[in-house]
Amino acid sequence: MKQKENVINEQSINDINYELLKNQFPHAISIDEDGKYIIDPKKLQMSLDPSKADIKEDGYGLNWVGKKEAYHTAFSKNYKVLKPLNDDNSKNWDTTENILIKGDNLDALKILRQNYFESIKMIYIDPPYNTKNDGFVYNDDFTSNTEETLEELGYDKEYIDYIENIQGAKTHSGWLSFMYPRLLIARDLLKDDGSIFLSIDDNEVAQLKLLCDEVFGNDNFVGELSIVNNIAGRSDKKNIATAHEYILIYQKSDNFLAKGLALTEEQLKDYKHLDKENNKLYREQGLRKRGSGAKREDRPNMYYPVYYDIKLNKVSLEKNEFDNPVIITPKLSNGTDGRWRWGKKTFLQKTFLLEVKKVERRNEFDIFEKVYLENDGDMKSVKMKSFLLDSDYTSDTATSEFHEIMELNTFNNPKSVQLIKDLITISTDKNDVVLDFFAGSGTTAHATMELNSQYTTNRKFITVQWAERTAEQSEARKLKYNTIFDITLERIKRAGDKIAKGDIGFRTFEIVEDLKQKIYQKSLEEMTQTDMKEIFELPSIDSIEDILYNLLVAESLPLSSKIQTLIEEKLYIVSNVVFVLGDMEIDTLIDEIKGKKELEYITVYSPNIKDDKFTLELESAVSSIGIKSDKLRFRG
């Protein structure tokens, strides 16, 4: 018996270890037909150290030229910081919980990974589709440092030359290298029960599916939505007028559970029956299977007789339970045998949901399920379908929405507000955070605010948009929208003004280079005379506000956190952290913070502290009020 218990324990430990690996490296772990875990050592090595990974890069798909470099990019050092734009670029700064970031979304994701790790419930992105009409150009910054990195990662000269040639080109390999690091970080940001929705068209849908299978795990594929976004069809295709696009859905883990969508007024009309026992409305759904797979031979075990007693108004699977019962079997419209939707086990479990009615036109009894009108929070709901045909989802509707707010025709194929609202509805709860790092026209932010207004919820958005230049002679440029970011910003402002309810504000941050930190990371051998000169001449992050918000990132606090000022330009509290940003008397510090029960950490911004005595006395002073030395941190 003891030996058997050890085997069980050993199996459990192995399962736990495999699960841990699977959570961290989903693309490297799979399950075979017998339910056993399989580790792909090459993919695992790729995750741990891409320079030593034996990965073929001779095509596109899961393996393409530049894959190791793309993986390396996701986890390379970030030399960017956030600059708060607490001016006309923001709205309701002191009260809002929404965030807008101006800059490259890869830099933004690296920053967000520090303070929003596993905190995002839903991500929606509408990335460039990599078509000939797509004006987006991928990274074309091929420098000597890039070449050195590729050599360190083990690339041969011919591959380095190839990667240099495809920088900025619209190739499958270039597009995959662009998307790969962004999706890797996106996965880190998702909560365990979170999900990601990715819009795409025919051009890259196959490649994106394979890439997401690797990043999120193919068993975390939730589904593919087909959206008819152009009912008339696009005339630019030679043979087929394309009328639809796709949205791929992946979950972080199987803890994700999609919710329902609000029923339309027309759908609500079907719930016309009242169950007097529970005072609930319901609609009738035939127990007989309709459509494909409805024949008896399709599922023989789901064909069986049901016995019905008219006087007692009861059903049973036992013939002898009633005297002279009516026998009901599933029949197709042509009189042949069909099948039920439920097997016998389900029938017995859900008999209380069934009712029998005589169908006069067929002069026979039939069985119906009572489908009750349930509430999903404050909303009566129905499950989303994989094929979406609704005028509210089309590009025409989205374009009209955008033009109505902006009086501008810039985006050819924006996404509709209703579509994004529905995606947010099925994937989030009322206080969750939604992320869109390809903000574009700002639809996700607009949809989040409108959904909050409609249902009195408090979802928050984080949107990121690169300051891509608008075309020189474009309508946007004539109206002083010099970048796409300018349009995103203005659309969110105007949408909020129109909604005028709930949190319609946002804090805006710009991603800027931390030039000093970049120099500090160099070895002495790499230092140049110019570097030494710039260390003294380059401006520091000297604004107190700039320092504070970058410290929020360092301490993993949300950018929407409320900042309490204790001593102007010197002492602040955010959540459970005290920030010391300037010299003061030790006794003054202790008097200000003692008695604050929520306090757990003290963070000191060292570059602003000139008094060595303060630093030396700080540890013993804070220990006197119960804060241990490991809760005292020096930054900068």
Automatic annotation (TrEMBL):
The keyword Methyltransferase applies. It comes from the Bacteria. Pfam families: N6_N4_Mtase. Its EC number is 2.1.1.72. Residues 120-455 form the DNA methylase N-4/N-6 domain. One of its GO terms (molecular function) is N-methyltransferase activity. Keywords: Methyltransferase, S-adenosyl-L-methionine, Transferase. It catalyses: a 2'-deoxyadenosine in DNA + S-adenosyl-L-methionine = an N(6)-methyl-2'-deoxyadenosine in DNA + S-adenosyl-L-homocysteine + H(+). This is site-specific DNA-methyltransferase (adenine-specific). It comes from uncultured Sulfurovum sp.
